[in-house]
Amino acid sequence: MKNVYPVIFTDEKECVLVEVPDFEIFTEGKDLSDAIEMARDAIEVKIVSMEDAKLDIPVPSDFKEIDIRKSEFFKDGKTIISLVDIDSTEYRRKVDTKTVRRNVALPSWLNYEAEHAGINVSRVLQEALMNTLNVSRSR
Question: Contact at 8 Å (CB) between 6 and 82?
Answer without folding.
Answer: yes
